[in-house]
Amino acid sequence: MSNSNKSNNNNNGTNSSNGAQRSNTLKISVLGDGGGGKTSITIQLCSNHFVEYYDPTIEDSYRKQVVIDEEACILDILDTAGQEELTAMRDQWIRSCEGFIIVYSITSRSSFDQVTLFKEQINRVLDRESVPIMLVGNKCDLEHLREVSTEEGRDLAKCLGMLFMETSARTRLNIEEAFYELVREMRRRERGIKDSKDKDSSDKKSKIKNIISSNVQKLNKIKSKTIHSVKNTSFCKTITQIDRFISFL
Ligand SMILES: Nc1nc2c(ncn2[C@@H]2O[C@H](COP(=O)(O)OP(=O)(O)OP(=O)(O)O)[C@@H](O)[C@H]2O)c(=O)[nH]1
Ligand SMILES: [Mg+2]
Known about the structure:
By secondary structure, the protein is α/β, with parallel strands linked by helices. It contains eight helices and seven strands; from the N terminus they run E-H-E-H-E-E-H-E-H-H-E-H-E-H-H.
């Protein structure tokens, strides 16, 4: 397949020792039943064309540089196998990614029925409930073959805590939107974690400040009682130093 954005899995351009690049790279895995359109969606996003033929995927990796909400990032997209006999690696694919797109075809009830299993597998492998996931109902250009309604898709996504969008890899409808909304969700969560870490550290700082301040008050009382003592000068100096230290906190 000639695809300039397709990357070799052994050397996909992400140097894990390069912190700056890594922080700017978002790893997204595309999961779902075989034939639902995972590869077609990914290629439409990365190379702007629709692949008509069906060639079941074993595992492919794609990279695309994008600017979303004026912030540049690299999407490192893992296109996975949906065919049952090729899914032995699925735990490993999930473990290596931070955000997920679960794809079903609106023309296939059985692909929709598997969505919950994919979601449960993600939660089990990552060992957490809250994971950024976009549920995609693909092939919505094939309205006459529809087996899953938009409401069913939306309700399931809501029930399982996922984002939702219907797409068409053929017409490119909502392809960028689905990936971009997932990225926004990933960023929101990342910032949420950072904000709560910042808050924790500022809470700790103010606790330390309060403890030291109350001890300084006690020392000041002792100072006033020992004003005539010989050692008072160095004692006063120490208190002044502690006072200065507090003002730095
Ligand atoms: N009409 C229509 N056909 C689509 C769409 N997306 C994919 N297809 C077709 O569906 C078939 C399967 O698409 P793929 O993208 O290869 O499916 P996949 O999910 O990657 O399948 P696996 O790699 O086996 O897991 C191909 O023939 C595509 O051309 C779509 O949005 N509309
Ligand atoms: Mg594929």
